[in-house]
Design a protein that fits this description.
The chain is α/β, with parallel strands linked by helices. The protein is built from six helices and five strands. The mean pLDDT is about 95.
């Protein structure tokens, strides 16, 4: 577990942009199990690829004309129970942080794992998300 003082600025990078931080398993279940609407979930992390690629890409993608109904985040290494619950919704994908997922009507419809984030620019990742938004978001 990371000290909260260390990760607070990294978490605020998304929450200040409008992402809702989920810190309990109950809050994760409540939102991700909804049977209507779309949710973008970012599994945040302290790693460099989260800072340089994943968080900027997630924020860029929300500038598109079609966006999910909700944008949420959990923080790996901080809110263990919330992250563990989120990872249950991400199955069959193995645990990955950072990671970005799109849910529609309670179903996982698009997943970007860490190995899709590393070595790719934030712009490329954002374009990937925007393509998924065009298909799944109103």
């Amino acid at each position: 577990m990371y000290p909260i003082e260390l990760v607070k600025p990294m978490a605020k990078d998304l929450t200040d942009f409008g992402f809702n931080g989920l810190s309990t398993p109950e809050s994760v279940t409540e939102l991700l199990s909804k049977n209507e609407g779309t949710v973008l979930l970012v599994v945040n992390s302290v790693c460099g690829c989260a800072a340089g690629n994943a968080r900027p890409a997630a924020k860029m993608s929300l500038q598109h004309s079609k966006t999910p109904d909700h944008a949420v985040t959990v923080f790996a290494g901080v809110d263990k129970a919330a992250v563990d619950k989120a990872r249950e919704f991400l199955l069959p994908y193995p645990p990955s942080s950072p990671a970005i997922a799109l849910f529609k009507d309670g179903n996982l419809v698009h997943m970007i794992e860490r190995h899709h984030i590393e070595g790719r620019s934030a712009q490329m990742i954002a374009e990937n998300l925007v393509s998924a938004f065009d298909v799944h978001c109103a």
